[in-house]
Write a structure and sequence with these properties.
It contains eleven helices and ten strands. The chain has 311 residues and is α/β, with parallel strands linked by helices. Strands 1, 2, 3, 4, 5, 6, 7, 8, 9 and 10 form a ten-stranded mixed sheet that branches. Helix 4 crosses helix 11. The termini are far apart. The N terminus is likely disordered.
Amino acid sequence: MAGISTVGTQHAAFGQDFPNRPIRLLTATAAGSGSDVVARIIGGKLTEVLGKQVVVDNRAGVNGLIAAEILAKAAPDGHTIGIVTLTQLLSTVLYQRFPMDRDFAPVSRVGSTPFVIAASPKLPAKTIAELIAYAKGRPGQVLYASGGQGSIGHLCMEVFQTAAGVNFTHVPYKSSILAVTDLGGGQVQLLCSAVPTIHATLQSAKARALAITSREPSKLAPGVPTVMATLPGIEMDGWYGIIAPLGTPPKVVAKLNGALAQVLGQSEIQERLLTVGAEAVTSTPEAFGNFLRSEMQRWGKVMRDAGIKPQ
């Protein structure tokens, strides 16, 4: 009994002493990517709130699984955490490794961004309703690009096709950037992309935004209607979240969650996130855990319905 009491006391003290050294914030992408930029915006202020430096560590590769493995094997003491996205979650579903709803401790959602369905100016449709009518008269003739099999751009359009009762032809690329480039060049006619990825192409009028996938209109895409206005039930949002190794003490998770809420409540941080295409979001660890479970289930079903098998 004495041993159990001592362990409990040490566990409580550990939570109170956190953090006692710099915190490593892992990203699954290269420097300059959306996740990296969001991590650095949040990490800078988190350093001030927690009183210890937050160091962004970019570990790109293997569709986000390198960073996931490092985080899963890190000491569960709160000094190594990771920023994750829907893209990375899809990789864990596709490759059946490091599931986010079971292998990690959820801390908080930190950002949200809608996807935009964009068309080449060569496509005559200027609205979702016109797109559906156009595609129904030309089954299989409308080409849509994506960043690859099982990517969010692929799954977004699979969901759209099912809801709209149309049939497009998928043209997968090695990256979303290449897909956007060919949309701008007119080699493909449609694409579903996160707002930041396609923003410059839309601004240059090389592509036209037909609609966004969020429930409500977004300040990230002013003047662009929602898909739901034409197809009720089509709601998809990209997101950013913070997770920690499984077994991280609840008091440490709670302290990280509170610090993130303090950071994301600052108008300066909210404005900076908007400039890179994200809206600040906060949640409890429990709510984020439930969200991750629902996302794993939702997108796993979309993959199965699209005939995408785990690799």
